[in-house]
TrEMBL record:
Self-association and partners: Homotetramer.
Entry binding sites for Mg(2+) 1: 99, 121, 123
Named cofactor requirement(s): Mg(2+)
Domain called Fructose-1-6-bisphosphatase class I N-terminal: residue spans: 12-202
NCBIfam families assigned: PRK09293.1-1
Presence of keyword Cell division: no
EC number(s) reported in the record: 3.1.3.11
Organism of this sequence: Waterburya agarophytonicola KI4
GO biological processes: fructose 1,6-bisphosphate metabolic process; fructose 6-phosphate metabolic process; fructose metabolic process; gluconeogenesis; reductive pentose-phosphate cycle; sucrose biosynthetic process
Protein family according to the UniProt entry: Belongs to the FBPase class 1 family.
Ligand binding (substrate): 124-127, 216, 244, 274
Protein's name according to its UniProt entry: Fructose-1,6-bisphosphatase class 1
Gene: fbp
Family matches, as SUPFAM superfamilies: Carbohydrate phosphatase (SSF56655)
Length: 335
């Protein structure tokens, strides 16, 4: 039985999204319909994850390799297809672009009237999936700009300030949805008995400094000396603590609520790092800035980066302003 505290008015996600708009314009209606669809995808993925260990054929690898050169998990495909199927009938989204698909997926029946493109990472932190640890989904919403005549989606290769909405779903002990439409960052918790996302926190602000630094230190010898200098700095100063879960959504969520910094620098083998701009770094950067914090490549605001391909990667430093500034000062001092 849900026992909400009496001072909470059980605001649902759909009502909250509508209230982000001052009118009932077409855009307000479209975006709330899209957010409802994202929430439906989240519920479907959440339900599957909660039972995956009991189901035959839900976990493990498919044997395929995706466009990123990574082994594909069955759950990656399931979640990728869930987003496609919930948006197929939406009439709103004309294209979907995801980590798991080399080229965007076109929904011909929604084109050209579909006025939006959804970019997403269906399962972020896939290495956690088979061992029942937290994973996430990340999404970014863009307005269709001009026509995509050659089907190459070149119009998506623009900066992150063009996002009209972004967010993620964290599948943890509870399923949490965090979103922004450019007017603050808000979080919702799925009440499985109601099948509704209920408001948990509005206008979240990331503290200017936090004790956590979150990075895969296994890459230490592959980093640039400036990043090693920063890590040596936190090792030598009191008050820092390390947390790294292998799922960006979970690591970012901790920082959203408690402050700190997440780092995925370039390495010798992959100078651009691992994380993809359009459906991983840019949506989280939009959330970070809306929560009063920062996201950079070390040199440039993540939201200003213009990619040259859909699966473009960039180093990512994101979190509390003072902590990101400190990382940046190490990087820029070396140049
Ligand atoms: P994925 O979307 O294929 O799971 O890759 C992204 C994930 C992030 O969630 C996480 O921060 C990072 O990759 C972990 O990578 P590594 O194992 O190199 O530290
Ligand atoms: Mg990912």
């Amino acid at each position: 039985i849900p026992e909400y505290s009496l001072d909470r008015d059980c605001q649902t996600l759909s009502r909250h999204v509508l209230q982000q708009f001052s009118d009932f314009s077409t855009q307000a209606q479209d975006v709330s319909a899209i957010m409802n669809r994202v929430a439906l995808a989240a519920k479907l993925v959440s339900r599957r994850l909660s039972k995956a260990g009991l189901m035959a054929g839900a976990l493990g690898f498919t044997g395929e390799t995706n466009v990123q050169g990574e082994s594909v998990k069955k759950m990656d495909i399931y979640a990728n297809d869930v987003f496609i199927s919930v948006f197929k009938q939406s009439g709103l989204v004309c294209r979907l672009a995801s980590e798991e698909m080399e080229k965007p997926y076109y929904i011909p029946e929604n084109c050209p009237i579909g006025r939006y493109t959804l970019l997403y990472d269906p399962i972020d932190g896939s290495s956690n999936v088979d061992i029942n640890l937290n994973v996430g989904s990340i999404f970014s919403l863009r307005q269709q700009e001009g026509e995509d005549l050659d089907g190459e989606a070149k119009d998506l290769l623009t900066d992150g300030d063009r996002q009209i909405g972004a967010g993620y779903v964290l599948y943890g002990p509870s399923t949490v949805l965090v979103y922004t439409l450019g007017n603050g960052v808000h979080s919702f918790i799925l009440d499985p008995s109601l099948g509704e996302f209920i408001l948990a926190q509005e206008n979240i602000i990331i503290p200017p400094h936090g004790s956590v630094y979150s990075v895969n230190e296994g890459n230490y010898w592959q980093w640039d000396e400036s990043i090693r200098d920063y890590i040596r700095y936190v090792h030598r100063h009191e008050g820092y603590t390390s947390r790294y879960s292998g799922a960006l959504v979970g690591d970012f969520h901790r920082i959203l609520l408690q402050g700190g910094v997440f780092l995925y620098p370039g390495t010798e083998k992959n100078p651009e790092g691992k994380l993809r701009l359009l459906y991983e770094s840019a949506p989280l950067a939009f959330l970070a800035e809306q929560a009063g914090a920062k996201a950079t490549t070390g040199f440039e605001r993540i939201l200003s980066v213009v990619p040259d391909k859909i699966h473009y990667r960039t180093p990512l430093f994101i979190g509390s302003t003072e902590d990101v500034d400190l990382v940046e000062s190490f990087i820029q001092d070396r140049v």
